[in-house]
Structure prediction request, 163 residues.
Amino acid sequence: MIKRPPLFAILLTAAGLLPFIAGAVLSFAGKGETIPADGSYPLMVGQDGIGILCTYGLVIFSYMCGCFWGFASKAPNPNKPLPYIIAVLPALYAFFYIGRSLLAQAQHGDVLLHLTVGFTALLVLDFWYQKINLAPAWWMTLRVPVTCVVVLCLSLGSFSLTT
Prediction:
């Protein structure tokens, strides 16, 4: 069994953390109105940090839900529905709590809180899929540090709203 993630998985995962890190950093930058110069199209401006954390967080959370469905499809007995039911629960959480908060234009702090709780819960499910041997042997080696970085970035974004 491979305990170390494939190099390409490590590289793509690290690249996937960059928007979280950028969102956390930008959440502390430019609290005032920054208007880009006419004719310029900046990729990001200071007040984009929280929006990046919220929207990119929802995208990645949804992506992780799909990973669980893939794990469930590897179950040795497809007539036992528990791995599929567990795989669907995070998507329902994303819809009812995270997505609805975004659509209702709830306070960004609420969205960040739901994302933080959600990513923490995903890690618990990661452990469960690993325990029942549906996740790759190296999965937790990758997921634990990545989840720590994501939760830290979301927490920093929440903290920036209070400063």
Observations:
- The helical segments are 7-26, 49-72, 82-103, 108-131, 139-162.
- The first helix runs from residue 7 to 26.
- The chain has one domain: 7-26+47-162.
